[in-house]
Amino acid sequence: MERVLLKELNMKSRDEAISFLKALWDQKSVNCPVCGSRLELLHKKAKKSDCDWQCRNCEKTFKTIHLLDEINEQMPLRGRTILLE
Ligand SMILES: [Zn+2]
Questions:
Q1: 64-76: per-residue pLDDT in tens?
Q2: Which of 8, 43, 46, 55 is deepest in the core (most CB within 10 A)?
Q3: pLDDT digit string (tens) for 1-14?
Q4: How far, in Å, is the centroid of ligand 1 from the Cα of 84?
Q5: Separation of CA 61 and ligand 1 centre (Å)
Q6: Domain residue extents for the chain
């Protein structure tokens, strides 16, 4: 199984991406943003915020820590201001 990338999830905003991650961390029943199948918990780790999920239909793993890194890189909290002179 491959790790899913943030861009594959079609998240429209940082808020949407973060609330998806929060649902995973809270171990709610979450559907795959790509295909709509129910995600399954892959490993339960000691740290709640480090849990991994999988979608059997897409054959992807959802590593929440990696997704969080990608969100922070690609969807920074403060939008970059483009200055036009
Ligand atoms: Zn899927």
A1: 999 999 999 999 8
A2: 55
A3: 899 999 999 999 99
A4: 41
A5: 9
A6: 2-74
